[in-house]
Amino acid sequence: MIRLLHIEFIKLWNNRASKVLILAYFILLACIALIASIKFNIGPIKFHLAEQGIFNFPYIWHFNTYVAASLKFFLAVVIVSMMANEYSNKTIKQNLIDGLSKKEFIASKFLTVIVFSLISTIFVFIISLLLGYSFSSITEPYHVFSDLEYLIAFFIKLVGFFSFCLFLGILIKRSAFALGFLFVWFVGEKIAYGFLRFEIEATKNNWESITQFFPLESMSNLIKEPITRLGAAKELAKQVGEKYSFDYAVHFHELLIVVGWISIFTILSYTLLQKRDL
Amino acid sequence: MTVYRRTIKPQNIKFILDTILSINNLSKNYGKLKAVNNLSFTINKGHVYGILGPNGSGKSTTLGIVLNVVNKSGGTYSWFDGTITTHEALKKVGAIIERPNFYPYMSAYKNLRLVCKIKNIDESKINEKLELVGLLERKDSKFKTFSLGMKQRLAIASALLNDPEILILDEPTNGLDPQGIHQIRDIIRKIAGLGTTILLASHLLDEVEKVCSHVVVLRKGENLYTGRVDEMISTNGFFELKSENLEALAQCLEQHQVIKNIKITDDLLTAYLEDELSAKDLNEFLFQQGITLTHLVKRKESLEEQFLQLTNKTDH
Fold first, then answer.
1. What is this model's ipTM?
2. Strands B33-44 and B93-96, how do they pair?
3. Which end of chain A is less packed: N or C, by CB atoms within 10 Å?
4. Does B87 contact A96 at a Cβ distance shorter than 8 Å?
5. Which CATH number fits domain B1-92+171-177+201-234: 3.30.420.140, 2.60.40.3500, 3.40.50.300, 3.40.50.720?
6. CA of B295 to nearest chain A CA: how many angstroms apart?
C-alpha cells in the first residue's frame, strides 16, 4: 500500500502544475481562518463576522466543512489530470508493462484520493478547533466535540466527488474534456432536478426521494447550507415574517448513498480498464 | 525430455527446460479483422528470437497481449511455465513497445526511479544502466528535452533495470536516424552477448538476420514459419562467378547436372543450385573443362529474399 502511494506521490509531486494546485488548495483551506477578520464599519452599523456566532461550537463544524468543501474543485483538477495524463502520455501502458497490475493501478489512484480526503479532513479539524477556541463563546468539551459527524460527511463527500473525477478521467482520457463533462453532468442534474420538481410535485410530493440518488446531488446533500442556521439569518427571517425549518443534520442513509456511488465509480473504473485495449 | 530428467544433473535440467514464454492458439479479433490468428510458439531461455513480419502482421498485437495491455480473444499464453501471474512475471521482463513512454516532466533519473518502485527493486542499478546506453551525463535532464534516439535508449535502460530474464523489443530502431539505429543495434548486440534472452519484433529483415538465431514469421496474423533463421528455407544457395570468357563458362555450366539455372548480368554470372555443391568441386570441374575463374563466391539467399519467397508463396 505504501509502495502504491509512493508511486503516485512521485508522479504528482514532480509535476509542477499538480504541485502548485495542491499547495494552493491547502493554503486556501488555511485561509478559512481569514473569514474571522471580516469586519464592516459603516457609520453606526458595526459588523464583525467572527462575532456573529459562525465560530461557535458545535456550529463551526457545520460551517467550516461547508466552506472547505467548495474548494474541492482545485483537487478535482489535479485528480482528473493525474488520470487523464496517464492516457495522453501513454504511461499507463508502460506502467502495466513494467509489472503494475490493473488492480494496483486503480488502487494507487484510489488510495491517493483517500489520502487527499483524509488530509483535508484533518486539516479542517485542526483549523476549526483553533478558530473555535479563539472565537467561540462555548468551549465546554461536550459542545466542542459534538456534531463531529460533519467531518465524517466531509470526508465521504470528498472521496465521493474525487472518485467521480477519477472515473471521468478514465472514461474520457482527456483532462479538459473530462472536466467539461463534469460541468455538463452538473447542469444535467440540475435540469433533471428542476424538471422532476415541477412535474412531479403537482401529483406527488416525493421528488426528492428520486433526486437524492443523483451522484452530485447526493454529495451536496451530505452537508446542507449552514447560513440559514445562523442567529442573524433567523432574526432576519423572523422580521420578514418568513418561517422555515430545515433539517440540517447528517443522515446515515445519505452517507450510504454516497458510499454506494464511491463503490460504483471505483468498480466501473476498474472494469473499464480491464476491458479496454491500450 | 523424460530421458534428460534421468541422465542429467538437476541443475542442468533447469537450464535445458527453461521455458520463458509459451503461446498456444492465441487469437485477437478487432471486429471482423483477425489481427492474430491461432498463433503458437515457445520462447526458451538463452536464444535471441525475432518476430518478423510486414507492418500490420500482428507483431505488436501479439506482444501487447502477452504484456497485459491488449485483451486476447482466444487461446492461452503463460510466462515461466505458468508458475506466476502475468503482472508478477512482467517484473522479470524488460519490454519496450512502439514508442518510449515516460513522464515528460520528470528527469531521466526520476523516471527510472519510478520504474524501480513499480518493479519493486533496488535503485542502485540506475546509474549503471544509464551508463550502458550512454545517457549518464543527461540523467538530470527532463524526458521531454530528449531526442527520439535518446528516448529509445532510455527505454532500453529502463527495460534492463531489473536484469530481466527476457528483453522484449518492438521495432526498437523505428524512426531513428542511421546513427541512432547503429547505437541501438550496438546496445542490443552487447546485451545479447551477456546471454540475455531477447525477443525482437521487426519488419526490417537485416535487423533480425544480424541479431537473431530463431525467427517467427508472421503474415496477416498467421504463423508462416517458426524455427532457426538459417533453416528457414531449405536452399542450396548460389554461386557468383566471373571469367574472362563468360560464354564458354555459361555453356559449360549448362551441362552440369546440379546447376538449376543461370543468370548473367553484365560480367557477373549467377548459377543457382539444385543440390549441394561445394565451391572446391565446382572449381575443379571448371578447371578440367579448361575454364579459369577470376571470381568465385558461394552464397545463400539473404533472409530478405527468403522472406519474400515465404510471404509470396501464400499470397492469394
1. 0.85
2. unpaired
3. N
4. yes
5. 3.40.50.300
6. 52
